[in-house]
């Protein structure tokens, strides 16, 4: 009768030669086992299982000894070879090589360098901007060509002040409160109310000009905006580094505007309007490159599509206002 013993090869009969390393009696598993690296060379390794297996525990000293695997789980390259390195982060979408789970862009998992995310963000911004400009252009046309609307607004100046207050409240809310401009549908509600109020104010301003002058200002503003946008897309000059200079220039323009309130004149109005048109022309390039990101030093987060559309809208509206002022001052 054949007896069995537990000598490290489970189920090896006495009196027979042990199977080759890595094989069990009967040819199982098939040739090719063990695979490289599991374990080398041969199976079992010394000390696994401990003598007396399964007597005295499974295995003695704990299962497995010295941790499973040594150095932590998972190891570098998981799935794959085990080791003591942390999980790889290089090349993972939405993260950089600094540390796992850290997004230096502050975009909640968005990698703005990803081309598809950037293009989707740009399409969303320009889609919102086109809607805003369409609404504003409709108000301008209404106040320019419809005499009844023009007379009604002139007879009720309180509407202008109400629109001005609403516009400032919405603008400050979106500029200062991040949750207002990021959380839908609140961001679209505030942006819609702001666009309507700003369009009404601009319509009141254009009502004091002739139709030909308004049309000429719209045409010039359209051509300049398209040209500057194409320039911002193609140029190798990084305008995103000029934020401080543009802020100082805007502050000077504001002080200059206060001065023109007390000292009227054709010359000072032309200088003021020309400086304003030049400043907001540069702002169009600056805000466009901030939106594009990529090769530029500074870029806005992809979730700030409302803020990006608001910036470009204000740039275009201000450019149109100063162009219209230059045309009006030249007429007067």
Shape: elongated
Which radius of gyration do the C-alpha atoms yield?
36 Å
Give start-end ranges of low-pLDDT stretches: 1-12, 70-111
Structural class: mainly alpha
Biased composition (Low complexity): 26-35
InterPro entries: Bax_inhibitor_1-related (IPR006214)
Biased composition (Pro residues): 36-52
Keywords: Membrane, Transmembrane, Transmembrane helix
What do these coordinates show?
It is a single chain. With 332 residues, the protein is an all-alpha fold. Helix content is 55%, strand content 1%. The protein contains nine helices and two strands. Strands 1-2 form a two-stranded antiparallel sheet. Helix 1 (115-145) runs parallel beside helix 5 (186-206) and helix 7 (243-262) runs antiparallel to helix 8 (266-292).
List keywords for this structure.
two-stranded antiparallel sheet, 55% helix, mainly alpha, disordered N terminus
Short description:
With 332 residues, this protein is mostly helical. Helix content is 55%, strand content 1%.
SSE order and pairing:
Elements lengths: L3 E2 L6 E2 L101 H31 L1 H9 L2 H19 L1 H5 L3 H21 L4 H24 L8 H20 L3 H27 L12 H27 L1
Antiparallel strand pairs: 1-2
Helix pairs in contact: 1-5, 1-9, 3-5, 5-9, 6-8, 6-9, 7-8, 8-9
